[in-house]
Amino acid sequence: MDPFADTLGRLRETFRSGRTRTVEFRVSQLEALGRFLRENKTLLQEALARDLHKSAFESEVSEISISEVEIKRALRNLRAWMKDEKVPRNLATQLDSAFIRKEPFGLVLIIAPWNYPINLTLVPLVGALAAGNCVVLKPSEISKSVEKVLAEELPRYLDQNCFAVVLGGPEETGQLLENKFDYIFFTGSPRVGKVVMAAAAKHLTPLTLELGGKNPCYVDNDCDPQTVANRVVFFRYFNAGQTCVAPDYVLCSRETQERLLPAMQSAITQFYGEDPKASPDLGRIVGEKQFRRLQGLLRCGRVAIGGQSDETERYIAPTVLVDVQETEPVMQEEIFGPILPLVTVRGLDEAVDFITRREKPLALYAFSNNSQVVKRVMAATSSGGFCSNDGFMHMTLETLPFGGVGASGMGSYHGKFSFDTFSHHRACLLRGPGLEKIYAIRYPPYTPSKLRLLLLAMRTRCCSCTLL
């Protein structure tokens, strides 16, 4: 027996009623989501602290504030986003109305991860609600404190005939995926992403996959080592390194590595003190399974900075590895922890070759005082996002799409891109019943003169159209 049948049936019936399509209903749900964040802020921060030892600063900056900005942007622009988008017409359709209508898909499933369990749950939810869908939300069972808050509190704010939270682990998620949805949005690992995509394929369900990967960080010889160190250290060890867009490894020359190491040690000490374990600003690994995997990665290469760990607290010190071989596990899998390998290359060409031989990453970073070096890295590579001389600041802009390419994912969201992701863009042409004599040039018997007239009528100023 399907344990989700009643819930999904209720939500589908609500969507068929047309209730979620009105702008008034969408606004009411977004406003309710905003109230949930404001009224449960302390509860959410406490849950993040229990799950990830996340400081109030990191919780506000990377979780709550970003979600609030997305809600406000959607509310401010929703009516404009929902408007039909008129398109150019050819001569054959000059008397018609041609436009794109954004329609909700229907019943959508959002499967969220544990590393940013509020941000990566609520930001896609904003897009799904703004687009007028009914939503099944599956938060991660690994960040169990946040999961509890979302399950107990969020349904009190949103219409329960249009929204549901489903709990459970891999077994329950697998059962859930046996059902047909109209759209699936998944954030997580490439391994699980393949499972989700296979399940979606059985029902021909469209989906967005926000995955991860190993994000390269090229550091040119022409740079200030302390500035680079400050920025790389901040973004690598933010949230204890459990960030899908964090720099995953550094490529630099041997000379630059020797300049970077003391600068990175200085930055770590400045940020987290002589004993990082005592710092209230350094997070912890989310669970024992993840901790043990990271402990194994500490055996790769040679520890140049850090390397200490404490299983009782799931603590791993901010660590830098050197003399790492490309074949070692730390260079074969996404690290997702406070460990940063430095890999030496002879120069820019070798760095670009190293990057392009591997799967396309979710993010790519280049540090250099020379703008031509930055432009070369950007032009010669492909990644979900790119940022020069800093970390993942590009994903804080809701005016930029956030998403992967190739093995790091497909599709994008944030801001209007979220609304578009959860909307079907329906091509519409409205034609009246008259003027049959003019349209008769399409009909057999075909003649060369009819063909010339028809081809002329089908042309637009900028492109050619096909005859439907």
Could you characterize what this model shows?
The structure is a single chain. This protein is of the alpha/beta class. The protein folds into 2 domains: 5-211 and 412-424, Aldehyde Dehydrogenase, Chain A, domain 1 (3-Layer(aba) Sandwich), CATH 3.40.605.10; 216-403, Aldehyde Dehydrogenase, Chain A, domain 2, CATH 3.40.309. It has helices spanning 5-16, 23-39, 41-52, 56-82, 119-130, 144-153, 170-177, 190-202, 225-237, 254-272, 288-297, 348-356, 371-380, 416-421, 436-439, 448-458; strands at residues 85-86, 97-104, 107-111, 134-138, 163-165, 183-187, 207-210, 216-219, 249-252, 302-305, 309-310, 315-316, 319-322, 339-344, 363-367, 385-388, 409-410, 423-430. The protein has a 7-stranded mixed beta sheet with strand order 10-13-14-9-8-15-16, with helices on both faces. It has a 6-stranded mixed beta sheet with strand order 5-4-3-6-7-17, with helices on both faces. A 3-stranded antiparallel beta sheet has the order 1-2-18. α13 links the parallel β15 (363-367) and β16. It is globular, with a radius of gyration of 26 Å. Residues 462-468 have low confidence and may be disordered.
Overview in brief:
It is built from 16 helices and 18 strands. It has 468 residues and is an alpha/beta fold.
